[in-house]
Specification:
383 residues; alpha/beta; Rossmann fold; 6-stranded parallel beta sheet; 15 helices
């Protein structure tokens, strides 16, 4: 009954395409995040399989209906069979359904890890027992391009055949040579959630968020005491931007500060302009470090045990609680001392520290040369 309900819901909210899908060499599963992937393949070789109700192919739908196949997985598998691509590729690495897609012949399933994933936010992906007990699930992915080796090992448990570490696929594409004009940048982790929303079974959002609020107040005080302008790189889009701005305004109202909307700037260009970048545990923070920027991680949300996967560097196990550019202490004294030290640190010293940790946390492969080299076994790239 639920399958039929979902089936008709999918139909009701979708736009229809009436013709049989054309054969293409590259099938991108899910249009989300596909813009950058498309740049690496010839336009005439690409077909996008919409998975979020953007469109629905009537030819595939009728064919499946006759065979009494009503699930979204049935639809996707039938669609892929008709397109018959050489490569099925996606950047939505936390989509359980991608791991279930069937392949045929010499087809290759490729995943590009795009975001730091944790059991806190992606429990369906990391709850392996739950996934395995559903049965009849083909999790055979030929290659995943991972952010680092430790994360790659987590994906191998999902029956990924090969892991290749390239760092951030998206960050690797963008190259800037910017003058450092922003003194201190904070990457926003603001969210619009009810106070009683359960982040984990024993932590609600109010408890979860209070650590960020304390850190932001410390940064506000630091800006006043040191006459430093604090710049906030926003996270929200559309109608939530104003709410996010007002949240920071309520804390920085008496400071010299700036708010940059995420939709009005290239985030990589902003972090490359910054002398020091501050983050909790955002993917963009790790990307900033990967790009060689002085980046300071405040690991202040990884307690209690249920939030352990939010700790700095997770799932790497050989990292100490405190280091030259990360801390678990959320006091004003610590904020002031570690931020001053990083701001005053000479570039030669920073480069040595960066070199020591980059391969562990997030390598950088400019223009994704490793990605292109590996896929050239299955696809003839244009120069």
């Amino acid at each position: 009954m639920n399958i039929l309900k979902n089936f008709f819901h999918f139909i009701f909210y979708s736009k229809f395409r009436f013709f049989k899908p054309k054969n293409k060499k590259i099938l991108i599963f899910d249009e989300a995040g596909s813009g950058l992937v498309k740049k690496y393949f010839r336009k005439e070789d690409i077909h996008i399989l919409h998975t979020r109700k953007e469109s629905l192919n009537l030819f595939v739908l009728i064919k499946n209906f006759i065979k009494r196949k009503f699930s979204s997985l049935d639809y996707f598998n039938s669609y892929i069979k008709l397109v018959d691509p050489n490569i099925i590729i996606s950047v939505i690495d936390n989509s359980p359904i991608f791991y279930k897609l069937k392949k045929s012949g010499s087809q290759k399933k490729i995943l590009i890890a795009s975001t730091v994933r944790t059991p806190v936010h992606d429990f369906a992906l990391f709850d392996l027992n739950k996934i395995e007990t559903k049965g009849n699930i083909d999790t055979s992915v030929d290659v995943i391009f991972s952010l680092n080796d430790a994360i790659g090992k987590k994906f191998q448990k999902l029956n990924v055949k090969k892991v290749i570490t390239i760092g951030s696929f998206k960050s690797n594409y963008f190259n800037f040579d910017e003058k450092k004009s922003i003194e201190v940048l904070y990457i926003s982790s603001w969210a619009s959630l009810p106070a009683n929303h359960k982040v984990t079974h024993d932590v609600n959002f109010q408890e979860f968020n209070e650590h960020q609020i304390k850190l932001i107040k410390n940064l506000s005080q630091y800006g006043k005491d040191h006459q430093v302008k604090i710049t906030i790189l926003g996270k929200m889009k559309n109608n939530l931007v104003k709410n996010e701005f007002n949240f920071y305004k309520s804390i920085f109202y008496n400071n010299e500060w700036e708010f940059i909307e995420s939709e009005k700037a290239n985030s990589y260009q902003v972090i490359d302009k910054s002398k020091v970048v501050i983050t909790l545990n955002s993917t963009l923070g790790y990307e900033s470090f990967s790009r060689g920027n002085k980046t300071l991680f405040f690991d202040v949300r990884s307690v209690p045990q249920s939030l352990n996967s939010l700790k700095f560097g997770w799932p790497i196990t050989c990292i100490e609680k405190e280091g030259p550019f990360w801390t678990r202490e959320n006091s004003y004294y610590k904020c002031k001392s570690i931020l001053n030290k990083l701001r005053e640190m000479k570039e030669t010293e920073w480069r040595n520290i960066h070199k020591k940790f980059q391969g562990l946390l997030m390598p950088r492969d400019k223009d994704n040369s490793i990605f292109k080299k590996h896929l050239s076994e299955f696809y003839n790239f244009q120069d």
